[in-house]
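The pair is quoted verbatim below.
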Amino acid sequence: MLSNPSRPTALLKLSLLHIPAGGAARLRPLLLTLLLLLVPAASARAALVSGGACNGAALSQPFSQWGDASDYELVPQGDFEGSLSQWSLGGGAHQALGGEPYGVTGTVDEHALALPPGATAQSPYTCVNASYPTFRFFARNGGLLSTVLVQVLYKTFLGPVALPLGAVALSGHWQPTLPMLTGSVAGGLLSGGTAQVALRFTALTGESQIDDIFIDPRMR
C-alpha cells in the first residue's frame, strides 16, 4: 500500500519535466499507459480525486426508459439544436435536420450532427472528475456498415492525450448507446482532482448521425 498516495503522480510529473525538446508527441502513448496503470491506485485512494460535481449543470435522467436511472448532464451544445460554435468539425460534419425522437431533453429534437464517412467532430472541453465515470449518446446509421470511433481527449501538461474507447456499431433507427467510460479517475489523478475532457467522434465507414450526448456525474 502506498504510504504517500500522491507519490505516483508526483514522480510522473517530475520525470516528465526532463523530456527533451520534440519528445512530447512520442511520449504521449507512454503517458496514456501510465494513466491507465494509475487508475487502481486512484480508485483505492478516493481522497486523491474530487468526487463532487465539477459544475452546476442541470441533471436529468434521459435514459430512464431504457432502464438507466442515473443522473446525467448534457455536454455543452450536445443537443445540436443551436450554435455549434464550440465544436470542432471536419471532413464534412454538419448540423442536419432530424434528431432523436424521444424528447429526452424535454422537447423532441429537430437537429442532429451528421457524420459523412471520414468526418470528425470534437466537443468542447468540459470539467470531469471521479464522479463522471461514463457518458452516453443517441445514434443511428445511414448504411448497414456504419460505425463511429469514439475517443476521449484530456488536457495534460504534454498537450491533449486521446483515450480510444473503440467503435460503436449503429442501428438504422435512433437508439442510445451503451455507457462508455470517460477515464475520469485517471485524468483527475494527474491534475489535482479534476480534468478537462472532450469527446471526439469519427465516422469510420458509412454515414452516421449522433445526438444528445450526456455525461453521468453521479453513477448509481
